[in-house]
Amino acid sequence: MIDAKSNQKSVDGTKPHGAAKSRQEEASTVEVVPPPNVIEPDPELTPEEAEQARRRYLLTRFWISARRYWGRGGDRLAWPCSIGLLTLIGINVGFQYGINVWNRAIFDAIEQHNARIVYFLSAVFLPLVLGSVVIVTAQVALRMMIQRRWRSWLTTAVIARWLANGRYYQLNLIGGDHKNPEARISEDLRIATEAPVDFIAGVISAFLSASTFIVVLWTIGGALTLTIASSTVTVPGFLVITAVLYAAITSSSMVVIGRHFVHVSEAKNQAEAEFRYTLTHVRENGESIALLGGEEEERNDLDKTFANVLRQWALLARQHMRTTLVSQGSSLFAPVVPVLLCAPKFLEGSMTLGQVMQAASAFAIVQSAFGWLVDNYPRLADWNACARRIASLMMSLDGLERAEQSNALGRIKRGETEGDAILSLNDLSVSLDDGTAVVKETQVVIEPGERVLVAGESGSGKSTLVRAIAGLWPWGDGSVNFHADRRLFMLPQRPYIPSGTLRRAVAYPRAADSWTLDKIKAALDKVGLDYLNDKIEEDAPWDQTLSGGEKQRLAFARLLLHNPDIIVLDEATSALDEKSQDNMMEMVIHELPNVTIISVAHRAELEAFHSRKITLERREGGAKLVSDIDLVQRKRKRNLLLRLLEDRRSLPKGNTTPNCAGPPVP
């Protein structure tokens, strides 16, 4: 139910009952700070430069929300886990150094043919390996725990903002880069939170490893003396200089070769999201497609969308090939370079075999640390693209949230009626998010128990007006006022059927066990769905199984269970035949005699079930209310015909004009 005063809604414009907070309500306290201020690009920038500035800001916007995980209101285990991970990284580097020293000792012992030391070092090696394995395993477990908890925290925060105040619906009404929000929240946000933890852990590990083993290289390698044209040149710390130069060459090569990686990766992710959306759209509309025989057209659309996926994958594959060329070549040369550099000193006897092997091991570790960018550039680019996509969604939500807190665009006010009126529209104007008027200056007062039909040609703003009344459309001017503590229930043209059992579908948006089976069966009986009573507990794809008419009947059963004060029917009987439609309306009036009804419909037959009719007319500058008349209740046409025939039989001969009271039947 919507509490007309609080106006908190779920998918069908309803508010779940119960004292316990829902997960979304609990999560809504995660991110309580206002959205960031709008940063307008410099007007002197070219469109291309302005777009680049916007893309750079997207990463900033992502971190504005993401870093709150470690702040006030964040996860209580965020800092303990992070500090623990850094500690394990430091300990692991210590084990790496121990194994490096072990390499030198074992090869020196082998060179000296010292069996006792070889056996001793062989025994020492097992604890070193076990210790390193345990630390690395614990490091992986803690790193993945941070990733899991961070993703959970940020996903909960984004979903809470997405669902708040109907923003998930309003995103469909505004412009912006927020297509496929479900893919952004599920897939892009996962990568956006997993990758940074890996990156930070990798950078810290690389820094500690490089710092430790550069000292080892400097100590072991010493200076290299070269004779060039009868003159000698001494190069201090030649192994360190070589490692730095080698890493600089490979890293710069990777940056140059993969400079388009971010853009290509982002385009690939967008193409994948659009392909998923197209497949989902076909599945959700399978019945209509099958009835119309639209398989060939859908196949063409899917082929076109998938062709774009393959095209983006081909571009990404080229980028991977280029970066692999650099990374693979680097990994093959790295172990050989230090051995070749140390060979002259070993051959002349100034370095032992153990020192050569220790230098080779240290050089590989330093090169791996310096080459972190080489190994992770593709994933860094993928993270960049995903972070920007989720940030684009955040910015669209920011805009909606700012609009809720500002009167710059105009917001429809919501309050309480005065007197006995159950609903009043006071100078209500409904507009788009850009200020374009849809409905202008509507003044309506509805009393309890009235049944009001909203009429008008297609495109005159009837459904928009109804959505403004229900609180789904925020932009405009004037006010929508409800009687205090009245509950509103909305029946859209396409009722929402959740996954799960039929019992859950009928009870939605309350829990499936909110009513007994007998009450649910009784509601189904009244709407003509008694043949489904045996399947109430059956878990099936009811959204695909039920016909359009059955879904609308189920929505009326849902209505009976919730027993609201105000009902908004938006073409809620369009899938029913005339007789079924009349039965539904008669049933509602009989079962809920005091309910207030606001209907949007095109069928003239529905006038018989309403006491009042307001008509909207589309005009330049926005639709306006052009008439508000009381309707005289009329009986069914066939009943009137029978009465006319009876009157004819009762008239004296020669008089064929019955004396019918009331206005003529249209």
From TrEMBL:
<keyword id="KW-0472">Membrane</keyword>
<feature type="domain" description="ABC transmembrane type-1">
    <location>
        <begin position="83"/>
        <end position="382"/>
    </location>
</feature>
<dbReference type="InterPro" id="IPR050835">
    <property type="entry name" value="ABC_transporter_sub-D"/>
</dbReference>
<keyword id="KW-0547">Nucleotide-binding</keyword>
<feature type="domain" description="ABC transporter">
    <location>
        <begin position="423"/>
        <end position="645"/>
    </location>
</feature>
<dbReference type="GO" id="GO:0005524">
    <property type="term" value="F:ATP binding"/>
</dbReference>
<keyword id="KW-1133">Transmembrane helix</keyword>
<dbReference type="GO" id="GO:0016887">
    <property type="term" value="F:ATP hydrolysis activity"/>
</dbReference>
<dbReference type="InterPro" id="IPR003439">
    <property type="entry name" value="ABC_transporter-like_ATP-bd"/>
</dbReference>
<dbReference type="InterPro" id="IPR027417">
    <property type="entry name" value="P-loop_NTPase"/>
</dbReference>
<dbReference type="Pfam" id="PF00005">
    <property type="entry name" value="ABC_tran"/>
</dbReference>
<keyword id="KW-0067">ATP-binding</keyword>
<keyword id="KW-0614">Plasmid</keyword>
<dbReference type="InterPro" id="IPR017871">
    <property type="entry name" value="ABC_transporter-like_CS"/>
</dbReference>
<feature type="compositionally biased region" description="Polar residues">
    <location>
        <begin position="1"/>
        <end position="11"/>
    </location>
</feature>
<keyword id="KW-0812">Transmembrane</keyword>
<dbReference type="GO" id="GO:0140359">
    <property type="term" value="F:ABC-type transporter activity"/>
</dbReference>
<feature type="transmembrane region" description="Helical">
    <location>
        <begin position="199"/>
        <end position="220"/>
    </location>
</feature>
<feature type="transmembrane region" description="Helical">
    <location>
        <begin position="77"/>
        <end position="97"/>
    </location>
</feature>
<feature type="transmembrane region" description="Helical">
    <location>
        <begin position="117"/>
        <end position="142"/>
    </location>
</feature>
<feature type="transmembrane region" description="Helical">
    <location>
        <begin position="226"/>
        <end position="249"/>
    </location>
</feature>
<dbReference type="Pfam" id="PF06472">
    <property type="entry name" value="ABC_membrane_2"/>
</dbReference>
<feature type="region of interest" description="Disordered">
    <location>
        <begin position="1"/>
        <end position="47"/>
    </location>
</feature>
<keyword id="KW-0813">Transport</keyword>
<comment type="similarity">
    <text>Belongs to the ABC transporter superfamily.</text>
</comment>
<dbReference type="InterPro" id="IPR025662">
    <property type="entry name" value="Sigma_54_int_dom_ATP-bd_1"/>
</dbReference>
<dbReference type="InterPro" id="IPR011527">
    <property type="entry name" value="ABC1_TM_dom"/>
</dbReference>
<dbReference type="GO" id="GO:0005886">
    <property type="term" value="C:plasma membrane"/>
</dbReference>
<dbReference type="InterPro" id="IPR003593">
    <property type="entry name" value="AAA+_ATPase"/>
</dbReference>
<dbReference type="InterPro" id="IPR036640">
    <property type="entry name" value="ABC1_TM_sf"/>
</dbReference>
<protein>
    <submittedName>
        <fullName>ABC transporter ATP-binding protein HI0036</fullName>
    </submittedName>
</protein>
